[in-house]
Amino acid sequence: MRTIFSRTQGRDIVPEYVAKHWQEDDFFGSQFLNGNNPIIIRCCTTLPLKFPVTPEMVAGSLGGGTDLGKELQEGRIFIVDYKVLEDIPTDTIYGRQQYIAAPLCLLHQGTDGLLRPIAIQLSQTPGPCSPIFLPSDDEWDWLLAKTWVRNADFYSHQLLTHLLRTHLFGEVFAIATLRHLPTCHPFFKLLIPHFHFTLHINTLARSVLINQGGLIDKGSGVTYEGLLLVVQRGLEQVTYTSLCLPDDIRHRGMSHVPNYHYRDDGMSLWEAIESFVTGIVTFYYGGDAAVSGDTELQAWVMDIFTNGFLGRTSSGIPSSLQTVAELIKFLTMVMFTCSAQHAAVNNGQYDLGAFVPNAPSSMRHPPPCEKGRAFLQHFLDTIPEVATTANILVALILLSSQLKDRRLLGQYPEEWFTETEPRRLIRAFQGRLQEIRDRIEERNQVAELRYNYLNPLETENSISI
């Protein structure tokens, strides 16, 4: 197994760890915090009517001296909802029909600080044919329910968190910059390194990865039309809040959760980028009037609003920038999305997906409608077979590769800025990134499973792969 999984000499054998621990509830829960899709979990204070979990169902999972109502009130219950996948058309692979679910998963933060699943429903409609699976159920019933959640998370991650929210938005930002900001504009100089190879990799993705007959089409259970429908639904749900990490963490109620390394490392990088952007903006712009009066800048943000977010005012995406503060926040969001956010949701794909039962790309049996019917052979016959696994592993290997010409966050070899102050700000930015790297590596020395995806040493300036 070590020989199979070790693609890069000297790298942690994370897939080997996954293969040993993927069935454990602790590891299942931890992936919502520090896995490939760390932006979908949210604190739950009121159970939705479509997920009728009763206190009796979960009493055994909560421990003594408490109950579901108390845990909800005190912010220790969390929910993941894959409604975006409801009724998505499914495909056949090698002549066999594939299936998809739109599950809900309830998790609990224990007294040890760890998140564990306590209830899973595999559809958006409760009823006799959609039982709520519990940790107290038969081992294979519970494992199969968790695996259906992991399959849904595969689609949510690949199509929305990764493709839409980094690659496609990064392309929108790049095109608007090339279209509206001349090369002498300070924000062209600031942003252009963060679009390095982005248009190239997206063109390749459209020709070999997300196209009809491409690797995702061959390796996943949704049709090409289904893929487009998921992305369309996802775009309708995107908000400016969700793209700005500090706002997103508060909105999802995730500020208090321990061991949330994506949040902690991400906030360190967000603040470092924000400080750098603040210095650049205040150097070139004397005040709010300079921002609102910059016609090239206003055309740039309007292009992003119109063509990237389809003019949806409900998204909260600004169509103009009137103040220095608004400009700093928007530029920080763009740079963070193209660097840190992409690193967080891209770099662990092979690590966490190479052992396919942990993140199956397709399911060959429909979701179970009753308990007591799962067993080992049924489980093996549900997850992808060898040929599909090989197709999806090729995609994961490609997406997790490192370019020889990669540019790490804060590295600007083209030296677009010539003035003394911007150059000083770049050096200060690089120094702050080194401090973040040191803190992450110190933490990782004592961690059972390192979280290194937001280490500046692993974070590129741009979406280049």
TrEMBL record:
GO CC aspect terms: cytoplasm
- Give the GO terms filed under biological process for this record: lipid oxidation
Q: Keywords on this record?
A: Cytoplasm, Dioxygenase, Iron, Lipid metabolism, Metal-binding, Oxidoreductase
Any GO MF annotation of the entry: oxidoreductase activity, acting on single donors with incorporation of molecular oxygen, incorporation of two atoms of oxygen
Keyword Cytoplasm assigned: yes
Q: Where located?
A: Cytoplasm
Quick one: which pathway?
Answer: Lipid metabolism
Q: According to its UniProt record, which cofactors does this protein need?
A: Fe cation
Main localization (coarse)? cytoplasm
UniProt cross-references to Pfam families, sorted A to Z: Lipoxygenase
Lipoxygenase domain location, by residue?
A: 1-465
User: Which SUPFAM superfamilies does this entry report, sorted A to Z?
Assistant: Lipoxigenase
Family per record: Belongs to the lipoxygenase family.
Q: What is this protein called?
A: Lipoxygenase domain-containing protein
Q: Which species does the entry assign this protein to? A: Chloebia gouldiae
